Amino acid sequence: MDKLKKEEVLNDYDFKLLSAQKLIYSLILTIMELGLYFGFIALIAYNKPFMSQKLEGEATTFGIIIAVGTIAISVGLAGLYVWWAKTKYDPLIKKIMDTHGL
């Protein structure tokens, strides 16, 4: 891509919108993920009695249930990002590429 075409794309309104949306969406998901994992680790570090407490009549502890929940929520957040990318991000990229003949 030549320099003129590159600058044309960089100055395009849709490209700027795309960049801003991706940044915001990525930051929100990153903060959620970090909060989830650091919260889980903090719970392990500071509330061991709760995490090691067994469920009534079961061999499973609250720690195991919370760990599985943490993994499930992480997979859900990744799925949310994939959904967003397919429904919002990819169509906007196609529009930008079509507009500039790329």
Characteristic terms for this protein:
102 residues, mainly alpha, elongated
Structural account:
This protein is mainly alpha-helical and 102 residues long. The chain has one domain. It is built from 4 helices and no strands. Helix 2 runs antiparallel to helix 4. The longest helix has 38 residues. It starts with a helix and ends with a helix. The model has no long low-confidence stretch (mean pLDDT 89).
How far do the termini sit from each other?
Answer: 9 Å
Please give the share of residues in helix.
over 70%
Shape: elongated
Number of strands: 0
Overall tally of domains: 1
Rg value: 21 Å
How would you characterize the largest beta sheet?
Answer: none
Task: Give the structure's gist in a few sentences.
By secondary structure, the chain is mainly α.
